[in-house]
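Dataset card, provenance and construction

Sequences and ligand SMILES were collected as paired inputs. For each pair, a complete structure of the chain with the small molecule in place was predicted and serialized as structure tokens. The example below shows a pair involving nicotinamide-adenine-dinucleotide. Curators did not alter the output after generation; any descriptive sentences attached to a record were derived from the structure itself.
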Amino acid sequence: MGMVEGKVCLVTGGASNPGLGHAIAHKLASEGAIVIVTDVDGEGAALTAAEIVAAGGRAQAWEQDVTDEAAWDATIERIGSEHGRLDVLVNNAGIAILKPLPELTLADFNRQMLVNMTSVFLGTQKAVAIMRETGAKGSIVNMSSVAALVGVPACSAYSAAKAGVLGFTKTIAGETAADGIRCNTIHPGLIDTNMQRQSKVDNPDEDVKLNSAIPLGYVGRPQSIADAALFLASDLSSYMTGAQLVVDGGLINQ
Ligand SMILES: NC(=O)c1ccc[n+]([C@@H]2O[C@H](COP(=O)([O-])OP(=O)(O)OC[C@H]3O[C@@H](n4cnc5c(N)ncnc54)[C@H](O)[C@@H]3O)[C@@H](O)[C@H]2O)c1
């Protein structure tokens, strides 16, 4: 029996490969979950679900823009009508607008907050509602970053959004604990995904500096974040809520 056997799990931003949502969706499915993969890239999400099904897992996918409240309503409603409940939400979808302060426009800042933080508010609110309605002792896993915990050059807007996710999650953990609903954050360091590969191109000097500062000596693999998400999704973490799980090869432990 898998660690999340039969749990209905929604993973946002699951199209990108290599990507964290993609790895998390695969991991949860391999441990028995029924996984719903969504992404603004609907075709990519469908591909992830098809890979899972081909490997013997249970998955379905559709397009969802996490900044769109109506799309959240439609997603949660569909999960409710097709599966009767939602056990786990992984708010993973995100973008990285990395610019030094003078170059950062208001439009950049607002977009960064909308995709990485407002989306987490929307998803969490809708997930908590269905979990309460159905009595599910659910787990909400919000993807933050080490950038929420330490300063990283060119990351001001990104850090603000990820620190917002952290504070938001801690407060919601307190509000939902009496329902048995848990909310925790994951704080990845440098993980080899399409996002990280792009930031290497945009900020090559910073990338070299950060890479050489990882005490464990290598850039992380999406699998390590998927393992952390599985732990927080599963009953192994049943006594954890409002916690921040740093998975960074020791990057900020100095
Ligand atoms: N890779 C890292 O080193 C790292 C470190 C810390 C935190 N993170 C966070 O982890 C999460 C996943 O990052 P990743 O590295 O896999 O990135 P990625 O770019 O590889 O994948 C992100 C996915 O989110 C989707 N997405 C973007 N905007 C969306 C929207 N509006 N609606 C729905 N989907 C949308 C993209 O289409 C893509 O499939 C992000 O929240 C990111 O900020 C990543």
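Derived descriptions for this record:
The first strand starts at residue 8 and ends at 12.
The first helix runs from residue 20 to 30.
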